[in-house]
Specification:
By secondary structure, the protein is an all-alpha fold. The chain is about 65% helix and about 0% strand.
Length: about 130
Amino acid sequence: MFDKCASDKKECTNRHCYCRCFGCALFAVALILIVGFVVQLIWNALIPGIFTLGTISYVQALGLLILARLLFGSMGHRHSYHGHRHGGWCGWTRKSTSECGDWKHYEDWWHEEGRESFKKYAAGKKENKDAPIL
């Protein structure tokens, strides 16, 4: 069933993959339980004094987390940023590639020669500290 592990692409046994999945699930459950406890502590420390509302129990704190997730949507959704915009300039501005002109090639240019061009430019600026920056 599991020929290779998804994360490191190494051969593994079924036992190893099952243990890894179980460990991730156990970590997620522990994290949810800890966050529920933190929400309860913060609520009980702040809200009764500020708004004269009552304290909440641990189960109510977990329910509050679920309610916040339902109301506000993508809580916990991580947008990755690795030094460049995913999808290039056109993907970032949500334009179609026909409207973007040459900008659709930005990502390829950056990986092929842009990084080195920028390093040369920055080195030149460091050497010429007295020169005005345009």
